[in-house]
Amino acid sequence: MAPLLDGSAWALLGLAAFAAGVVDAVGGGGGLIQVPALFAFLPGAPPALLFGTNKMASSVGTAGAAWQYAGSVTPPWRVVAASMLAAFVAAWLGALALAMIPTEPLRKALPWLLLALLIFTVLGSGGLHHQPKHAPQRELGWATAGSGLIGFYDGAFGPGAGAFYKMLFVRGLGFDFLHAAAPSKFANLASNLGALMVFAWQGQIHWLLGLGMAVSNFAGGQLGSRLGLKFGNRLIRRAFVLLVGVLIVKTFGDAYL
Hints:
This protein is an all-alpha fold. The chain is built from 9 helices and no strands.
């Protein structure tokens, strides 16, 4: 039975979804806004229902932002297609394996992985210049393998997956942040959909609320992607660094406090 909400809760969750869409499209990490909002307004709901509803809303916003970026900076579609397939299948398997995977070691390791990612980003100039590192076949292999690993993580656990996808394309493949925006969004969309299939099969989605939040998240994603395209690599890089910093604080608190 889906929990009932009053009008003000609907409006505030819609606002949270819009803000999450903006943030996610520029630097990633919209879940930092959307998931806590769902837990705040539906405190008695099963966590799986809230995560499933979040995946539904964010999938729509991510899809819209991905197409917006792709319309202005044409991505390598062969690499995108392979990344999406790997991420989708891996996230589906990860979500199915969720009950069998001990999440505590992941929870404790995540802030340190993110800290290393932040230091790696801040100390280097990666992402400011588009300089692909690999020949086409090798690039395809890197994108497929990396997206598969991140996709499984996204399905089984999730926090920071968008940041890992972006770093796969920036550091692993040598893209700048603007050229990495669409491929990382498409890969993230695929892993969202893979996990979403499992949540739907298990009946863990508040469909009406998810649809309403999806509309707001989509609108926010359109605004965020336009901002990213207008201000380019430096804005996306700064937003990414800020997001990873916030993620470090949050995941450290979740794991150790």
